[in-house]
Amino acid sequence: MSPPPKADTNNLCIVAGVLLGNLLPGFFQIVAGWEYASVNLIVAVLIWAMVYPMMVAVDFASLRHIHKRPKGLVITRKKKFDVPIRAQGAATLWGTRHAHAAA
Fold first, then answer.
1. Are the beta carbons of 43 and 35 closer than 8 angstroms?
2. Residue 92 has pLDDT above 90, yes or no
């Protein structure tokens, strides 16, 4: 038997979450209160569990050869810094323009 399609699994998880939240609201309020530095601990653990396999898959020995083919690194660095900076600039300009128009 093949696994269900991804959309069905997502919908099932959404329905299960809504039902459990309505059936056990006190439990989920307690879990929601488990925070440290305004970060929910359950969410932090789940994100860590999602990222950890990618971290262990890094071949650190190959990093010393990165200078031979730096294209991927250059593209990643550009996207990581240029896109958020441009988005922040656009948001600042857009917010400033509309703030002055409203005044």
1. no
2. no
